[in-house]
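Dear U.,

Please find below the material for section 3 of the report. The protein was modelled together with magnesium ion; I have listed the sequence and SMILES used, followed by the predicted complex structure.
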Amino acid sequence: MGRPPAIILRQVSKEYRRDQIRIPVLSRLDLTVAEGEFLALMGPSGSGKTTLLNLIAGLDRPTSGEIIVHDLDLTRLSDSQISRWRSDHVGFIFQTYNLIPVLRADENVELPLLLTKLSRRERRQRARTALRIVGLEGREDHYPRQLSGGQEQRVAIARAIVTDPYLLVADEPTGDLDRQSAEEILNLMEQLNREFEKTIVMVTHDPNAAKRATRILHLDKGQLVDDVTRAEPSPPKVAESAASGDPPYVADLDTARRQEARL
Amino acid sequence: MALVPLRYNLRNLAVRWPTTLLTVLVVAIVVACTCVLFGLVDGLEHSNAISGDPQTLVVLGKRADNETSSYFDVDKAQTIATLDGIATGPPRTDAQAAAGWPDVEGRPLAAGEIVHIPIMTRTDGSRVNLTIRGVDAASPYLRPDFQIVAGRYLRPGTRECILSPGMSRRFTGAQLGSELVVTDKETYRVVGLFTAGGSVAESEVWTGRDDVAAATNRTGSVSSMRIRAASPDAAVALIDTLSNDNRFVLKPIRESKYYADQNLTALFLTFLGSLIAVLLTIGALFAAANTMFAAVKSRTREIGTLRALGFSRPAILFSFLLEAILITTLGGLLGALLSLIASRWSFGISDFNTFTERMIQIRIGLVPLAVAIAMTLAMGIFGGLFPAIRAVRLDVIKALREL
Ligand SMILES: Nc1ncnc2c1ncn2[C@@H]1O[C@H](COP(=O)(O)OP(=O)(O)OP(=O)(O)O)[C@@H](O)[C@H]1O
Ligand SMILES: [Mg+2]
């Protein structure tokens, strides 16, 4: 492996309790995600994708097991510590964008920076930069309802990257978008992964979206299956574009073919 | 603690303005009503306070508690006026002369008066006890800041009367120039309007003493006498003489004490006001709480998002509490404004001591404003607290799943 692991899950189980009934969602799950990897999580509805994503992002706690992100054991952190860690190091991208409707685009992007010690001017500056990266220069003073779905999602991405986190989590980021907008969002995420070397975990139902990732995992009945890199003892290495540096593992042939075609 | 920006709350209030406006109005009405009530109490106490001069004595019959139930011989009144230690009348100014004031320069400031309380009809058709006071020459000089504001002073013995502008508006036939009909046989023509610094006199109809005596067959007696002592020591001496001297055996009371003892009404209104304030506050509190519960419910996913971004529970609590307080503060300000507008009118209320009409100017002073601020904060804090707690207790993950 070229890169140190960004995320390590060891024997992670998660079950919900409704009244007396225990609902197991994830059982004894192991997962390692390398730094700079773009991982796509697929699987049937209700298989626990969102649950897994929430665990990795420190929004939820496992019933048992260890979750280590950048050498930090999340399960040992207090609620306020984990909330602090989240605001510093995790960027969230939601299917429904989750922008604050009464705040303008730049104010939405600036929101996570209010939790930092940055000055007002620095915050403004950073928010503008983030909006420029997602291609929304000149839309700073638009309210969410004045933007298209794709633009809203780009504002949400700007908000996710404005604190310069090392991890981006995206739960069906293109689920509410038309084909064209979805492509644009995926291009953007790919760019963030390559140019800005963000580790990305993305849940998606769309095989086309998943193909953009450097690895695809399937979640089914509480288990990660179809993990090609695990199934095969010596995974094939595929040359990545120069910009991305060390190539992460490639999930399947589809991805490999796509990458070759692009070269 | 990193706080959710204030403009988030302000804009949310602006966006759902119909609900905001409605809640603000409810709070405003509640605050205005309470302010007006407490303003009335303030006005009543103020009126009593300025009516009472410690150096002026109200002389009543031995067994009387107030002027209504008091009487004694007019001869006694004339003798009292000759006592030492009574202040003498000031020179009459040109303006006073022009307005028809009696001239009492150098004569003792002592006025034997008759109080007569018939039932009268107000302009709104309701019936109430009206105080008619038959006055003496010195009477206007014994009231604070007495002024004729329209027409002229009454001429005794000609069935003329004067009253305050507030009374003039409230009673049928009390307009300047018209005939105030008490009974078929007792009528007075209104020849002037007067003010007396907001004192009790402004709630009375003034006519000549002999006019009232003739109309009510009370010739030869007075209800009470007012005398102004020349000095504080003279006041003490006069009280002693009037109480104990065999010629009199009367009940002299310092005017300030006389009116202070009459504040049963103020007490009752304070009690009523407090009760209403508490009940209305609780009512409006529920309105505010309802609004905020709706706000929390409709913004569940936003709250989840803010929490996911790293905003703390206390920050969320504070944000929603602040929003509630913003609403009620807006309402409180509007309510205070409304009550200030209302304070430009005077109100006729029933005095529970004498069961007579009292004209009271609402005074929005410190007490009503303090009550308004307390109510506003109570509504904001208690109305906002439970919705805010609900917002805080939301599970981030469930909140994010909300549509
Ligand atoms: N708070 C909860 N209480 C009880 N059960 C829950 C809770 N949250 C999730 N579950 C259950 O856990 C399972 C996994 O849910 P999850 O949302 O992770 O699935 P998912 O793979 O993201 O599905 P989808 O593709 O529909 O978004 C589901 O059966 C769901 O009903
Ligand atoms: Mg899901």
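For the text of the report, you could mention the following: Residues A 49-50, 171 surround magnesium ion (ligand 2) (CB under 6 Å).

Regards,
Y.
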